[in-house]
Amino acid sequence: FTNFMKEYSAPKPGPFVDIETGIIVGEHQGLHFWTAGQRIRLGKQGPQLGNRNSERGYIVSKDVETQTIYVCFCDHDHHPALMADTLFTNTPHWIGGRDTPSRVAESQKRSQIFGFQCDFRFQHAHRLTKCEVINRMSSNEGLEHTSRKGLAGMANWEYRDLRNRGLIVSCAEPQRALTPGQYAVFYSGEECLGSARIERVGP
User: Fold this and answer.
1) Are 50 and 42 within 8 A, CB to CB?
2) pLDDT mean over 39-43
């Protein structure tokens, strides 16, 4: 795949930066060759990472503006920097129509204002995991309600996506390598409810 990409795109070099120390540990030839969670190969097929060769390196995130790729090092693939339990999406597509969230919330005896519970995955090979989906909110009104206690500490700017009918998804357990651009797909039992493109990973 890398060789294929090289045939159709010009190199755009930038630094690999250790997310813990801020130190530049190597150079890459383009953000498009790398994805979150990917292991860094050493030697001729990847960056020379100085004295970190005894540890595994993994891609944490990419900064398009500076062409910087942030990496972490550990002897396993579940470094804390790779894990997240909250994601923000764009406008979802509900297979059963726009009333899907209210239908699911009603079946759980909840108000759709406060969201609903379901299962989700963001890669087809991953197992389903429980999550809480907050469907929408037109303003900050009602944040003091006891059912919304968990949201009371959020800054106002985090409601911007919801006013545009995006979603906040809170996972029951941390997920590895949640990546903007991937799609979160939601399920209720055997029913696929719909999906939404991940725009940002929390907190």
Assistant:
1) no
2) 69
Q: Answer yes or no: is pLDDT of 83 > 70.
A: yes
CA dist 35 and 182 (Å) reads 11
pTM, 2 dp: 0.74
Mean pLDDT value of segment 87-114: 89
Q: How far apart are CA 33 and CA 196, in angstroms?
A: 24
> Given the structure tokens 């941390």, which residue do they identify?
174
DSSP letter (8 states) at residue 150: G
What tokens does 56 get?
A: 């595994």
User: Could you tell me if 72 and 39 are in contact, meaning their C-beta atoms sit under 8 angstroms apart?
Assistant: no
Q: Is 39 helix (H, G, I), strand (E, B) or coil?
A: strand
Q: What are phi and psi of 175, to 5 degrees?
A: -110, 145
| Share above pLDDT 90 across residues of the chain, in percent, rounded to a whole number | 48
Residue type, 16: F
Nearest to 43 by CA among 33, 34, 52, 30: 52
Tens digits of residue pLDDT in 171-185: 999 999 999 999 999
Cα–Cα distance between 64 and 46 in angstroms, integer?
20
